[in-house]
């Protein structure tokens, strides 16, 4: 059975059918070239390099299609050549896997470095914002103190002006009362003088 889209295929060996899924690993080759399941056909002979587990199941490492012209050759020669090719391919796969792991570690390191830089930039931006906020708060406090000081100065000036106006009004009132008293005094003196003259004339008669 070959399931191209599902990435699965079966191989019969000594009456036992083994199931393989390429999603779990393994490489496919034909004449030394990497191929896909589209190159596999039902009834073809393949040479497998597998890793058996304790339950007897096989984990696929490499599967190589045996060309039809090689099937007629000595099976031991074919197995020997294919085994050598499988080992070479397994070595290449291990090397590629190691390179992929190194690239993954490098990528993770780069991402961690980028994240650290982003955090540092965010912290720096926050520090600048906090500094600006403190500066603004200080300026607002200073402006408020200045406004309060001006308000106190204005209130003091207004009180002083009001006191001055009150004193001026009192002085004006006192002046008017003095003038009124002086006028009354003069009038009284004039009336007394006239009475004295009138009395004197009456005595003469």
Write the layout of secondary structure elements.
Blueprint: E1 2-3, E2 8-13, E3 16-21, E4 27-30, E5 33-34, E6 46-52, E7 58-65, H1 68-71, H2 75-204
Parallel strand pairs: 4-7
Antiparallel strand pairs: 1-2, 2-3, 4-5, 6-7
Report the sheet-strand fraction. 15-25%
CA-based shape: rod-shaped
Rg, Cα atoms, Å: 59 Å
Classify the secondary structure makeup into a structural class: alpha+beta
* Oligomeric state of the chains present here: single chain
Order of helices and strands: EEEEEEEHH
Model description:
- The chain has helices at 68-71, 75-204, and strands at residues 2-3, 8-13, 16-21, 27-30, 33-34, 46-52, 58-65.
- With 205 residues, it is of the alpha+beta class.
- The protein has a domain at 2-110.
- It has a 4-stranded mixed β-sheet, covered by helices on one side. A 3-stranded antiparallel β-sheet has the order 1-2-3, with no helix packed on it.
């Amino acid at each position: 059975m070959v399931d191209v889209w599902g990435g699965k295929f079966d191989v019969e060996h000594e009456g036992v059918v083994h199931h393989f899924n390429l999603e779990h690993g393994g490489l496919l080759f034909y004449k030394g070239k990497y191929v896909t399941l589209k190159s596999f056909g039902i009834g073809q002979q393949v040479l497998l390099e597998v890793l058996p587990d304790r339950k007897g199941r096989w984990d696929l490492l490499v599967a190589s299609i045996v060309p039809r012209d090689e099937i007629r050759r000595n099976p031991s020669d074919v197995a020997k050549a294919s085994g050598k090719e499988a080992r070479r391919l397994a070595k290449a796969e291990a090397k590629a896997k190691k390179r992929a792991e190194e690239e993954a570690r490098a990528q993770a390191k780069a991402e961690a470095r980028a994240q650290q830089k982003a955090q540092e930039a965010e912290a720096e931006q926050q520090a600048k914002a906090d500094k600006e906020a403190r500066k603004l708060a200080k300026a607002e406090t200073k402006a408020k103190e200045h406004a309060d000081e001006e308000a106190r100065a204005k209130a003091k000036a207004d009180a002083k002006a009001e006191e001055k106006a009150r004193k001026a009004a009192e002085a004006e009132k006192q002046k008017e009362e003095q003038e009124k008293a002086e006028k009354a005094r003069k009038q009284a003196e004039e009336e007394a003088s006239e009475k004295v003259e009138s009395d004197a004339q009456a005595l003469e008669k």
